[in-house]
Amino acid sequence: MTLKSLLRLFIIALIITSCGKATSEKKAENLVAKDTTTFNYNVEQFADIKILRYQIPGWEKLSLKEQKLAYYLTQAGLFGRDIIWDQNYRYNLTIRKALESVYTSYQGNKTTDDWNAFDTYLKRVWFSSGIHHHYSNDKIKPGFSADYLKQLLAETNTTLEGDAFDVIFNDVDDKKVNQAKGVDNVGLSAVNMYGPNVTNKDVIDFYKAKKSPNPEKPLSFGLNSQLVKENGTLKERVYKSGGLYGSAIDEIIKWLELAKGVAENDAQAHALGLLIDYYKTGDLQTWDDYNVAWSQATTGNIDYINSFIEVYNDPLGYTGSYESIVQINDFDMSEKMKVVSDNAQWFEDNSPLMDEHKKKNVVGVTYKVVNVAGEAGDASPSTPIGVNLPNANWIRTAVGSKSVSLGNIIDAYDNAGSTGRLKEFVNDKEEFETEEKYGQLADKLHTALHEVIGHASGQLNPGVGETKETLKNYASTLEEGRADLVALYYLYDPKLQELGLVDDWKKVGMAAYDGYIRNGLLTQLIRLNLGDDVEEAHMRNRQWVSAWVFDKGKADNVIEKIVRDGKTYFNITDYAKLHDLFGQLLRETQRIKSEGDYAAVEKLVETYGVKVDQKLHAEVLERNKQFTSPPYSGFVNPVLVPETNEAGEIVAIKVTQPKTFEEQMLNYSKKYNFLPETN
Question: Among 110, 406, 620, 678, which lies 20 to 30 A Cα-Cα from 459?
Answer without folding.
Answer: 406
